[in-house]
């Protein structure tokens, strides 16, 4: 858990010096841009008739959105210089097979089973959340899955916080409580109790622990939560760890490439 300790130290020093939410302006701007594109992204996904291809496109969207990460010095420099296009990022993902690639196994599970409740630990603001995670969550809702989105309690880099997530969902829902034509009454938002870009799953909020007690699918997204601290975490239910590799040291450890993709799916039989 060295990454967890380093992240904790960094956040403590920043807060002691009065830097509580240094990326707030950037997050707000990126959320507004992503919200304006949400319906177009959803429409493109809905137009894919083949269910397997649609699911793969949604997963690619999560990975493409995850590149918007100001915790990576290289990506922060690119973002500041050129900005980032979500659709271009989708098209420019590294080729499969990825360094960890269980996508085909997940697509098979998608067609043969249905999950009653999914918990998704969200990561960055902007395209990551709005154009990556939320279209996938919407697809789960269409299949009758209740979805719990777990977000940070306090700001950390450009990670979305619990209050920000509530506000974003409210802006995306229409007057009938639908998310681009899909009933969103089964979509819940919960405070994870976390305040870091990584997460210790033994120390989540009591509210999240209660709401997740009967989940049959857990999704951890982002390099910090999914790869650096929980890649080998075992669950009693199905789980997905998904994220982009943005640090050379992590790429070397995994035996992959910088900006490679991780999609680790573990299916628990007879859950």
TrEMBL record:
This is Uncharacterized protein At2g17340-like isoform X3. Residues 9-262 form the Damage-control phosphatase ARMT1-like metal-binding domain. One of its GO terms (cellular component) is nucleus. Its cofactor is Ni(2+). The gene is LOC109725871. The lineage of its organism: Eukaryota, Viridiplantae, Streptophyta, Embryophyta, Tracheophyta. GO terms for molecular function: ATP binding; pantothenate kinase activity. It comes from the Eukaryota. InterPro entries: ARMT-1-like_metal-bd_sf, ARMT1-like_metal-bd, Type_II_PanK. Signal peptide: none annotated. One of its GO terms (biological process) is coenzyme A biosynthetic process.
């Amino acid at each position: 858990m060295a990454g967890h300790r380093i992240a904790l130290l960094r956040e403590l020093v920043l807060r002691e010096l009065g830097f509580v939410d240094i990326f707030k302006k950037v997050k707000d701007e990126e959320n507004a841009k992503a919200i304006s594109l949400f319906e177009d992204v959803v429409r493109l996904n809905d137009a894919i008739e083949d269910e397997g291809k649609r699911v793969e496109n949604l997963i690619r969207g999560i990975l493409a959105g995850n590149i918007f990460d100001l915790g990576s010095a290289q990506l922060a420099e690119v973002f500041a210089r050129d900005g980032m296009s979500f659709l271009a990022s989708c098209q420019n993902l590294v080729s499969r097979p990825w360094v960890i690639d269980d996508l085909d196994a997940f697509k098979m599970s998608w067609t043969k089973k249905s999950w009653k409740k999914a918990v998704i630990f969200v990561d960055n603001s902007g395209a990551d959340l709005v154009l990556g995670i939320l279209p996938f969550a919407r697809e789960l809702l269409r299949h009758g899955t209740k979805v719990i989105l777990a977000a940070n309690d306090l700001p950390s880099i450009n990670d979305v916080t619990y209050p920000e997530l509530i506000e974003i969902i409210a802006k995306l829902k229409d007057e009938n409580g639908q998310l681009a034509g899909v009933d969103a009454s089964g979509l819940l938002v919960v405070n994870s109790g976390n305040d870091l870009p990584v997460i210790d799953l033994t120390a989540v909020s009591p509210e999240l622990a209660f709401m997740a007690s009967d989940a049959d699918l857990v999704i951890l997204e982002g390099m910090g939560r999914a790869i650096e601290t929980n890649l080998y975490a075992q669950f009693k239910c199905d789980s997905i760890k998904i994220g982009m590799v943005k640090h050379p040291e992590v790429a070397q450890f995994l035996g992959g490439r910088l900006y490679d993709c991780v999609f680790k799916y573990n299916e628990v039989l007879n859950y």
